[in-house]
User: Which sequence fits this backbone?
C-alpha cells in the first residue's frame, strides 16, 4: 500500500487495485451483478477456507452462510423488489435455511461471525 501526505491536510491512499478486506461482506456477495464472479468467489472462499483448515467438521460457518447468501441472491434475482421483511415472513416457504436474525444480518452485510470468518482469509487473493 502506498500513501502520500498532502500538506493541505488530506491523505491519499493508492491501494494499487487491492480490494480492502472490509469490502467483502455478505451484502457485497448478495448484490454482485455477475453470477460468474459470485460463483468464482464462493468457490474460492470455500476452497481457501478448506486449504487453511478453517472449515469445521460439524459446523462450517463458510458453507452454512454461503448457502443462505446464495438463496438470498436467487430470491433477489427472481423478485427484484423483494424486501427482507417479505423474506423473513416466509423463511421456510422460500427455502431459506437460516433463522430470521441470521437472514437479516446476512442481507444487511452485518453478520459479525461471517465477517470475522472472512477476515481469516487472504482476501487480497479473491477473484475480481
Assistant:
Amino acid at each position: 500500500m502506498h500513501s502520500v501526505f498532502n500538506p493541505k491536510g488530506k491523505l491519499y491512499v493508492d491501494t494499487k487495485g487491492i480490494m480492502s478486506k472490509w469490502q467483502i461482506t455478505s451484502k457485497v456477495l448478495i448484490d454482485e451483478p455477475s453470477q460468474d464472479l459470485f460463483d468464482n468467489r464462493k468457490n474460492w472462499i470455500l476452497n481457501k477456507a478448506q486449504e487453511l483448515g478453517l472449515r469445521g467438521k460439524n459446523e462450517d460457518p463458510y458453507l452454512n452462510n454461503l448457502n443462505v447468501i446464495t438463496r438470498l441472491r436467487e430470491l433477489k434475482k427472481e423478485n427484484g423488489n423483494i424486501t427482507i421483511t417479505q423474506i423473513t415472513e416466509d423463511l421456510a416457504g422460500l427455502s431459506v435455511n437460516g433463522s430470521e436474525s441470521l437472514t437479516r444480518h446476512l442481507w444487511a452485510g452485518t453478520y459479525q461471525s461471517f465477517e470475522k470468518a472472512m477476515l481469516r482469509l487472504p482476501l487480497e487473493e479473491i477473484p475480481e
Remarks:
- Helices lie at 26-31, 35-51, 61-78, 84-89, 100-108, 112-119.
- The beta strands are 2-5, 11-14.
- The chain is about 50% helix and 5% strand.
